[in-house]
């Protein structure tokens, strides 16, 4: 089942992330060890609509729609940004720190954990075709 939402073309990245995490058990365990958090992404598209996805790097190494897994867990950190800026992060044309400093990326929750999502996004950059 695809996580892509047609109103949010960059959301295809969540399928790539899910694919990367489902590749090998060792890679998934390594990502969980490094991430140790549930990351939520709330994207806003050009028409003003908002949608959320999560990456569970705390327990399961899974990706889904919504702000947290359906098991009752809560996200540790939520990254709120425009879809075009998320696309920039995925394809390596934007820097999370610069987006944050310029106010284009808002972080709710544990800001220090937010820094741990960048390596996951870097892995996806090799697969990104945005």
TrEMBL record:
User: Gene3D superfamilies annotated for this entry?
Assistant: SCP2 sterol-binding domain
Q: Which SUPFAM superfamilies match?
A: SCP-like
Q: What is this protein called?
A: SCP2 domain-containing protein
Q: Which InterPro entries did the record assign? A: SCP2_sterol-bd_dom, SCP2_sterol-bd_dom_sf
Domain SCP2 span(s) in chain numbering: 23-122
Species the sequence originates in: Neodothiora populina
């Amino acid at each position: 089942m695809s996580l892509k939402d047609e109103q949010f073309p960059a959301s295809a990245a969540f399928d790539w992330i899910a694919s990367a995490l489902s590749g090998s058990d060792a890679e998934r365990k390594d990502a969980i060890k490094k991430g140790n958090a549930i990351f939520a992404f709330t994207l806003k598209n050009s028409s003003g609509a908002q949608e959320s996805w999560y990456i569970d790097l705390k327990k399961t190494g899974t990706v889904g729609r919504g702000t947290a897994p359906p098991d009752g867990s809560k996200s540790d950190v939520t990254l709120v940004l425009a879809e075009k800026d998320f696309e920039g992060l995925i394809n390596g044309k934007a820097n999370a720190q610069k987006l944050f400093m310029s106010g284009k990326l808002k972080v709710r929750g544990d800001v220090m954990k937010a820094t741990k999502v960048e390596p996951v996004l870097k892995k996806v950059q090799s697969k990104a075709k945005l």
